[in-house]
Write a structure and sequence with these properties.
Blueprint lengths: L6 H8 L3 H7 L1 H11 L14 E5 L6 H9 L8 E4 L12 E6 L6 H12 L3 E6 L2 H9 L5 E2 L15 H13 L7 H18 L9 H9 L3 E6 L4 H15 L4 E4 L17 H4 E7 L5 H16 L3 E6 L5 H22 L8 H12 L1
Helix pairs in contact: 3-7, 3-8, 4-7, 4-10, 8-13, 9-13, 10-13
């Protein structure tokens, strides 16, 4: 039996069922947060904002990128995703600053929050608690504090459905995002079916997540995305790093066509390690579909292996949710092959500890 078809062995490598249960619950995370966030009551000033700055890091940053790129052409206000300590100079009383921190303890986000206060920005946030929730409560500000009942792993990158659903619902409520609510609901139902296709119970020969994990084992993957899937490409690279403890990168077409293809010759060891994963969608614009075809030709001319994933989803929201699920299962299966525990992040924890000591 293939080890990726053996649920008992997978649980053994991971210590317990928490990661698996969290990944299986991605649809529930999105559904819970998408509906609950709409219960928040905002004062009239929040509906007059001119721009939005979302502050987040890691597993609390890439959900904002997912939402931004998915709905880019439907956004009614400019959005910036801020991933360092310093806010843009334009932030003022007409800006909505959204603090995104799953744990509520992210240092950068808490410092951004103080700067947003000083700039007199309107403030909200998404978190499950911690110091961020305390500060927002003390300031009597409207924000979404979710109960992470569908993420027993407690890892933000595995419970990222809460931030994705929460951000979609919050931006929709404030009129920053105009979307078809029915499409969102249908996409959540579609995601439930996709999760079954990628699940451990779905055998290797019919499971694209398992096949891709096997293809990536002991290789250095470049995830290739474009347009509305750009944010999920970032997410999968993040999950591969943290969950599988494996190096990865993501690149975006058309940008990579202007430089990366000339960097495939050297060093020679690249030919042994590097693999390109092309996430091809029929919903990309025509120029992008042509670029995917030619980019793949160039990569293969350099004797670099490729894997092509084709989507089941019928629209952009379905395909984004599908790729979110694929990334979560893929990185978990890859952690099994590497015999790594995805529920722990020792070097991130070490870094945070040292940061406090210095």
């Amino acid at each position: 039996m293939n080890i990726l078809d053996n649920k008992d062995q997978i649980i053994k490598f991971q210590g317990n069922k928490s990661v698996i249960e969290s990944i299986y619950s991605l649809d529930k995370q999105i559904k819970q947060s998408y509906h609950q966030v709409k219960e928040i009551r905002f004062s009239k000033e929040y509906f007059k904002i001119e721009n939005v700055v979302i502050g987040g890091m890691g597993g609390s940053r890439f959900p904002a990128l997912i939402v931004y790129h998915l709905f880019k052409d439907q956004l009614q206000k400019p959005i910036i995703i801020n991933d360092n300590y310093i806010l843009p100079g334009f932030v003022n009383k007409k800006t909505l600053f959204l603090a995104s921190s799953y744990s509520g303890t992210t240092e950068e986000v808490l410092i951004m929050l103080e700067e947003a206060k000083n700039k007199k920005a309107l403030i909200s946030g998404i978190t499950c608690g911690g110091e961020l929730a305390k500060k927002l409560n003390d300031l009597k500000l409207p924000f979404y504090q979710f109960n992470p009942e569908y993420n027993p792993s407690s890892q933000p990158r595995i419970g990222f459905g809460y931030a994705v659903g929460g951000l979609i619902g919050l931006l929709e409520t404030l009129g920053v995002l105009i979307i078809n609510k029915k499409e969102v609901e249908q996409a959540i139902n579609f995601l439930t079916k996709v999760i079954k296709k990628f699940s451990i119970e779905s055998y290797f020969e019919n499971n694209e997540a398992k096949k891709l994990a096997s293809f990536l084992f002991e290789n250095y993957p470049f995830y290739i995305v474009s347009e509305f899937l750009t944010g999920v490409g970032n997410a999968i690279a993040n999950q591969t790093n943290e969950t599988a403890k494996a190096i990865s990168d993501f690149r975006v077409i058309p940008e990579l066509n202007h430089h990366l293809m000339e960097g495939l010759k050297h060093p020679e060891i690249l030919k042994k390690l590097l693999v390109f994963v092309f996430f091809e969608s029929s919903l990309y614009s025509n120029p992008i579909q042509k670029r995917f075809l030619i980019t793949k030709e160039v990569v293969e001319k350099n004797n670099i292996k490729t894997f092509t994933y084709k989507f089941l989803g019928k629209n952009k929201i379905e395909q984004v949710f599908e790729l979110m699920a694929l990334g979560s299962f893929l990185s978990m299966y890859l952690s099994v092959l590497y015999k790594e525990n995805p529920a722990v992040i020792p070097y991130v924890d070490y870094f945070k500890k040292r940061l406090k000591e210095i």
